[in-house]
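(Structure overview)
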Amino acid sequence: MYIPGHFRVEEREKLWDVIRENSFATVVTVEGGMPFASHLPILLDEERGEYGTLVGHMSRANPQWQHFGRGEQEVFAGSPDGTVDSPKCGDTQILFQGPHAYISPTWYTVQPSVPTWNYVAVHALGFPTIIEDPERLSDLLAKTIQRYESGMPAPWKGEMPAEYKSKMLRGIVGFEMKIVRLEGKFKLGQNRSPEDIKGVYSALQDSSDPNARALAETMLHERMLKP
């Protein structure tokens, strides 16, 4: 991911927060020279690996799981000028999109200016492997259900007939990916003047778009507004 220095975020806990709060992710692999993407709920296990481990599942009919488990190969992910900074960063990217919004130049005091788009994004790279053990797969599903049912008025406990559950388990494939590289980009207008930052924050805060208001909250959390 292209990340100018003033937008780069490296604090692991901050990036984990983005992953946890925006867990419906895009899983990207390459097969036969062509990119392949799936949109999946992904859970973070903070206890395994320096940057954590991501776990998820997909339909067995989805061919992407066959791209996993091929082992660490030389995958170069250098900077735009060709400098290689990580020769083995992973053959798979899992992308997490945080709040984002269009930024109008009318919100700036410095003119002339042009429109842009501000956003929060986290990319995790690694080498996924298939979860073969049925008990581990069942445990993954239980944790996934608990994660997303927890906010429901009457949470479903995942109870189902044994034969039906067994059939459902055969129809999916679980996977896990220890994060080898974790990248964060918080493009919040850090390169603008304090007056421009205040103008953007005010417009986002007053917006009817929940994404825009969430971006304003992120600006506050990042202490971008000077007293």
